[in-house]
């Protein structure tokens, strides 16, 4: 079997605000701070999508380029990063994050970053199934998450690859297993999919 070829990812591009020192300190003015939270939310979502990340450990991420601009010698503090992500978990932040553990009171933790929420992932998955003609076909969980099927090879024509990530694969290829299950649960509730089999050998049929 020929090795799977990935399309090389393009370098991540940062917004203009990333080049301004005040961006790395939460501003006291309410309206300015709200605008700043929105910009940070967009940056975090774009960064995680580009790097195909679904979870974010704030403590581990503080010294990465996401929160640290080496040229400016500026970094968002842990407390400020906590405020940003906590805002993202709320309705006003579009619920684009969800604490897995920790949070503001714990002074750290890990969060889901929802560059797509589970219901949005459900739409992407069912759209891919419909566009590739795989309705009423049983696929294994592995095929969907990690197999060649979702790389545009095997039973799916290369020209049928849709909603590609920066790495040239469907966004849900290599997706976190827990998040994938939650998205499938949305489809099952809608009557669009049925999950069956044991945990290690689960199959999914789409309707």
Topology (SSEs and partners):
Elements: H1 30-50, E1 55-57, H2 58-61, E2 68-69, E3 74-75, H3 78-88, E4 97-103, E5 108-113, H4 118-131, E6 138-140, H5 141-145, H6 177-190, E7 193-196, E8 203-206
Antiparallel strand pairs: 1-5, 2-3, 4-5, 6-8, 7-8
What would a concise description of this structure say?
This protein has 207 residues and is an alpha+beta fold. 33% of the residues lie in helices and 15% in strands.
Give the CA-CA distance, first to last residue: 30 Å
Radius of gyration: 19 Å
| Whole-number mean pLDDT | 82
Uncertain segments: 1-8, 151-169
Helix content: 25-40%
What is the topology, as strand order, of the major beta sheet?
A: 1-5-4
Q: What is the number of helices?
A: 6
By DSSP, the count of extended strands is 8
Hey, roughly how much beta strand do the residues contain? 5-15%
Structure class: alpha+beta
The secondary-structure element order is HEHEEHEEHEHHEE
Largest sheet: 3 strands, antiparallel
Description:
The protein is α+β, with helices and mostly antiparallel strands. It has helices at residues 30-50, 58-61, 78-88, 118-131, 141-145, 177-190; strands at residues 55-57, 68-69, 74-75, 97-103, 108-113, 138-140, 193-196, 203-206. Strands 1-5-4 form a three-stranded antiparallel sheet. Strands 6-8-7 form a three-stranded antiparallel sheet. α4 packs across α6 (177-190). The longest helix has 21 residues, at 30-50. It is elongated, with a radius of gyration of 19 Å. It starts with 29 loop residues before the first helix and ends with a strand. Residues 1-8 and 151-169 have low confidence and may be disordered.
């Amino acid at each position: 079997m020929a090795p799977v070829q990935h399309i090389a990812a393009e370098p991540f591009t940062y917004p203009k605000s990333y080049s301004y020192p005040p961006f790395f300190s939460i501003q006291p003015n309410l309206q300015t701070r709200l605008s700043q939270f929105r910009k940070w939310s967009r940056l975090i979502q774009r960064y995680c999508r580009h790097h195909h990340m679904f979870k974010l450990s704030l403590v581990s991420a503080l010294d990465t380029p996401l929160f640290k601009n080496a040229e400016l010698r500026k970094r968002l503090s842990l407390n400020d990063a906590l405020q940003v992500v906590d805002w993202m978990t709320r309705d006003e932040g579009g619920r684009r994050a969800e604490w897995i553990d920790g949070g503001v009171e714990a002074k750290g933790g890990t969060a889901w970053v929802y560059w797509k929420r589970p219901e949005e992932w459900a739409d992407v998955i069912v759209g891919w199934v419909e566009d590739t003609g795989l309705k009423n076909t049983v696929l294994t969980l592995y095929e969907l998450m990690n197999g060649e099927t979702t790389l545009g090879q095997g039973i799916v024509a290369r020209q049928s690859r849709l909603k590609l990530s920066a790495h040239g694969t469907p966004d849900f290829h290599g997706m976190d297993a827990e998040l994938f299950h939650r998205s499938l649960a949305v489809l099952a509730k809608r009557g669009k999919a049925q999950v069956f089999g044991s945990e290690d050998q689960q199959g999914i049929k789409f309707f």
